[in-house]
Amino acid sequence: MSLAKFVALTAALLVTSASALNILLTNDDSWASANIRATYSALKDDGHDVVLVGPAVQQSGKGGTAVLPTVNITAPGGEFGTVPVGAPYFGHELNDTNIYYFNATPSESVLFGLDIVIPQFFDNRTIDLVVSGPNEGNNLGPFTYTLSGTIGAAYTAVERGVPAIAFSAGNGTHRSYTTNTGLPDDPANIAGRLSANLVAALASGFNGTGRLLPLGVGLNVNFPLFTPGGNCTAPPYTFSRLTGSATIDKLFINSTTGFPQFEDFVAPGLNTVNNGVAFLPGETDVVQGCASSISVFSVDYDAPSPVAEPVQVQLSAIIGKAKL
C-alpha cells in the first residue's frame, strides 16, 4: 500500500460518528483505576452499551496469564479500598450494575465477562468489541506483547474471535477514579476521550453485522504523555508498527546492592521486520512526540513463508525420522 493511501486512511480515522456497539471493557490496573472509569464514561457518552469487568486488584505485568480465584477477597481487599475483605470473588458497583470486579488476571477477566457475566446478566448479548485499558504507562514494542496485562486481555479476546483494542497512556501514575478532577485536561479524561474517538472511527458505518476487525487481528494503541494545562491534549493518530526502536530487558548487576537489575535495550531480533508494512514508523518513536500510535497485530505467530521455508529446507533431512 502506498504512503498516499495510508494518509487517506489516517484521515478517515478522524470520522467520529459511529453506530452503537456492545463493548466489554477491562484493563490490568484494576476496575477502580481513573483511566478505565473515564473511558467507561466516554464510551457511554458516545451511546455505546458498555459492561466493565476488571480485576479487583492491580494486575500489571501479567501478560496473558490465566489465574482464577479459589477464595473470596482476601486482605487488603480490592484496589483503593473498593472491595471489603471477605466479599465474594466477583461483584458489581451498588449504583451501576454494568461495572464488575473479578478477582483474577486481566486475561481471565475478559473470559469471565464473555462466558459468565454477559450470558447470565446481559441476555447473552453479542460483544462487538473488547476494549482493554487505557493502561497506566505505555506498552511499546513486541516485548510487551507477552508481558503487558492490558495487551494480554486484548489478545485473549482476539484469540476467542472477538475484535479488541489495547490502549496504553504515557501517564503512568496509579490513580483511583475518585481522584479524577472532572476537568477535560485531566490525563484520565484525555485518555478516555481519545479511546472513545478511535472506537467511534472503527465503528463508523457499522450496522451490527459483520466484524469490526478481521478474525485473529487486534490493535495496540499508545498515547503520549499528557500534562494538565499543557499543549499535548489532542495528539493525532498515526499508523505504526510494533517494531522500530522497541526495547527489551538487558540485565546488569547493581554495584551497590549486588542484585541484578534491568535496563532498556534496543535489540536487533526484536526489531527485525518480518511482517506488516515496513515503511511505517515504530510505535516507540511515534509517542515521543505529541502523537498517538495505532499498530495492527495478529495472534498468528507463524513466520511468513519467505522466512519459514529456508528453515524448513534446512531441517528437511530429519522430517519423518526421529534422528538423522
TrEMBL record:
Limits of the Survival protein SurE-like phosphatase/nucleotidase domain: 23-225
Q: Which InterPro entries match?
A: SurE, SurE-like_Pase/nucleotidase, SurE-like_sf
> Signal peptide span per the entry?
1-20
Highest taxon of the source?
Eukaryota
* Keyword Metal-binding carried by entry: yes
Query: Can you name one GO molecular function term for this protein?
Result: metal ion binding
For this UniProt record, the keywords arranged alphabetically read as follows: Hydrolase, Metal-binding, Signal
The entry assigns this protein to a family as follows:
Belongs to the SurE nucleotidase family.
UniProt-listed NCBIfam families:
surE
Protein's UniProt name: Survival protein SurE-like phosphatase/nucleotidase domain-containing protein
Q: Which organism is it from?
A: Cerrena zonata
